[in-house]
Every structure is written in structure tokens, then in C-alpha cells.
Amino acid sequence: MRQSPLPVSHHNVIRENSTDDAGRAGRSDGPAAAGRRRGTGRLRRTGRLLAAISALTLAAAASAACSAGGAGSASATGCAAYKAYQGHEGTTVTVSSSLTGTEAERFEASVAEFESCTGINVEHTGTTELRSQLLNGSGANLSTSSGASPSSQDNPENLPDLAIVPQPAMVAELVDTGVVHPLPNQVNSNVEAGWDRHWIQVGIHASVPYGAPLMASLKSLVWYSPDAFAKAGYEVPDTWAELEALTSKIRSDHPDGSVTPWCVGAADGESTGWVLTDWLEDALLATQGPGVYETWASHRVPVDSSNAVEALDAVSSLVLADGNVAGGRGSIISRSPEQAGADLVKGSCLMLHASSSFESRFPEGTVITDADGANPVTVQAPHPTASATAGSDGTAGATASAKSTASAAGTTSTAGSSGTKVSAFVTPAADRGSDSVLVGTDYLVAFTRSDAVSAVMEYLTSQEWARTRMALGGVATANQGVDPDLAPSDVGRRATRLLQSRQTTVEMDASDSMPVGVGSSALWVGLSRWSTGTVTPKEALKQAEAAWPKQK
Asked: What's the pTM?
């Protein structure tokens, strides 16, 4: 399978003329990043969301200046902001993604007002089997050792119009089948207006832009309870050595094992193991620095290089030592990420390594706060708290700020909530003050062409949509046209500032960019076996190296 050169590291650049950038047109996390944002189950949208959600969602877009590039004038409000996307009433555009549960609901809420004002039905399907469904639908030969071969069908019928793809390598694989259309010119303009070049290049193959970045996720995070830390007298660590010391302290403070330092859940159906790749990559970056990470991520050294083995050994001593993980190491591949999040909320463990997008996966009622336990935002399923209807002229019948929209449709500012408070700190590096972080993002690709499909793509890549989605909660973004303060939670705001800052060295998730048979298959399997003690770190990584396509 052809692999385009992928930029691994860079410093983000904030444009000097931020006012101009905010007025231009500018996609989702939440793996998406959303990192990876794989859910446990399948969610199919069978109808439009309630008009109340639709009107409330519009408020976020109306509160932010409508961007150029097809998003209407800067002073436009209500359905006037969607004028450039109109003229396709009664058309259905299908979108497939790996978004399920709350993440899927928030995505659907983010397009509800667009649907109401344009008459285009955006039919979303979230699935945990996105890759296999897309490749099977493409008609490609999947039996080759290097990946999917070109499609045998000129116009595959079993594909959606659009897909939100959680891994750059999957974008490359789909492009190789010949079923992905290049980005329309306006979509490409939207992307270039909002995103720095290193994000854009991931979606470019053979000098042609095929994938448009949506939201992003910060993967170098450790979630914890500020109240639990304060009660026990624990401090947030500033270095990897301090993180190790804190882990040992928590274990020694609870010799009966009633509370463990870490929660880890890697069970996710056919995607079991991706949580462990995030651990490996973040540990490699944190303990050995961006230079070593970039060399490994670009495969200039084998997957089982000594540096990678050392990083996995560091994870072993930190997380997998006796008494360090809730349920014992044998439970890691039987416990889901959501169950690990529930363990943290219950207090059976005190730390969880997960991306910024994980706030959508905590149990409903969990309160996201800052490090002091202040500025609380409660996790809840997106449902309206007030009714709203559209006026007879098609404009919104209710007005609200982006923050109040988030309260109604995703997260709620709650000063008196009785839920458990959680926050997050950046994974500490070996050297105090390191500016390197691991990130992930999703990419929008198109399998069909039509004016309605182009309209949906233009909206999803606009800064207007990015602001609306940000206000719904649970995501971060590197889109320079989005104000970080639109994020309802402190964690979302801090993650967005890091992703947008010129001081941050961003390292792309390596496994997401590796050939799919390596990063999203052999590595997951190898690390899953390692987590149970079946194989050594070296053996687990060697398995992934053996799966790397051989050069012909």
C-alpha cells in the first residue's frame, strides 16, 4: 500500500492577524482525535433531532461571527447564515463515522440547524466497524499483504456519501482503492483558512487533497479527581519521575488494594488494544523526547527498536506492576475504556490516561472541573432544557449564547452538582517544562459528488460548524478560527489552547499513520498480549514490525 510522507512533528503557528483568521471559513475530534473515539456498539440515526435541539444549536453559530467561504456574512443570524448552502431541499446526504453514543449525538446536534435551514437531511451512522464496512463497500481486494487494492467497481453502491475517518492511514488506504474524491475547491479553501499545514498534509496524497481535518484531540492527558488528590495530599506531578513516585505512593497508601493508582480499559471489540498504543506512544514521547519519537514514528528504526522497548518497559513498571491497576493487569483487555472511566469516578483508582475527548465517555453526571475543582461542567446526554421553535420566516425563534447551547445539548454548567469531579493534567515528561504532546484527529472524505454533498462538506469544514461543535462540549480543535473559550469545560479549553499554540510541539499519533495492518492490527494485538503477560515488550513490538509491508 502506498504511504504518503506524513509530517510527524512541528510547532503550531498562530497567525499574527487573528482578527482576519476569525472571520474566515475553516472539522471533529474527537478521535476525534478524536483521538480514537471508538464506541462500543452501533448507533444509527433514523430521523431528525427535535426542532428544539436544532434551534438551540443554531444559537452557537449565531453567537459567533459567521465565516466567509460560503457561510454567509459576518452579521448574519438565523437561517440567513446558511444562505450559501441552500437550494437542495429534500436531499439526503449520508455520513458514516466511528462516533457512537454521546459523541454521535453531539455530532448530530451540530448539524441539526443546518438541516432545518437548508432542507438537507444529514443521515449519520456511527459504527465500531467503520474500516471493514468502507473497504467492503468499496469493492476493493482485501486479500493483499500490503493493504486494500484498487476497487473493481467504477461506482461502488454500498458506500455513504461522506465518512469521518479516525485514522490518517485509513484515509490513505481508501484513497488507494480509488473510491475517494478530491476535496472540492471551497472545502479546500475552508481547511487552508483554519488549519496549519501539518494537519492539512495528512489528508494530501500524490499532491491531491482528499481528507479534510475536523476536530482534534490531545492524547497526552491523565484524568484524575482533584478532590481525591486534595484529600490524600497528592500533588499533580511535573515530571515522569514524579509520576512514578506518585504511583508508588498511592499503592503504598492502600496496601489492601482497595484503591489503585491507575484505571486501564482496552476492550473495544475488533479495536481492542488501541488504548495501549496511546500509552506506548505517549510514554516514548514523554521519556525520550520528540527526536526519538519522530525517528520511531516515521519507521526510520524498527517498531521493536530499543527505544520503543524501553518505553513499553516504563509503562509496564508504571501501570502493570502488581497492585497498580484496578482489577489487575489481567482485566485490562476485558474492561472497556468506559468501564475504566467509571472506575475513576467511583474512586477505585485515581488516574486514567485518556485523550481530551474522553470527557464524553465518562458516566452521565460526572463533573469536569479545573485543577482547583472550580468551573464545573456536568457530563450528560445531549437533550434540550428549553423548547424553541423556528419562526415563520425560517429564522431561529430562540436566542442563546454558545455556552448556553452547550448546556442544553451536551454539558451543563452546574455549581451545585453532587457528581464526582474530574480534571486532567498533561502527561509529564522526563524534563520539566517539555512542550511536546501527542495528538489525533479525524478526516472528512467523500465517496460521491453532488451539490448537496458539497454543501454538507463546506459546512462541516467551516469555522462556523467548528464553533458550534466546540460549544456542544467534549472536543478540542487546532482550527485557528475557533476561540478556545467556546469549550464548556476547562479541560477542553486548555487542550484547544495547547493545540493552537505556537509553543506546542505536536506529535501525530504514530499508529494512526502506520499501515493499517500494522498500527491498527498487529500492534493492537501484540500490546493486548503484552498487557496480560503473555509476551514480553520486545515480542509484542516485534509482532508489529513483522507485519510492516515489505518494499518491493
From this structure: 0.80
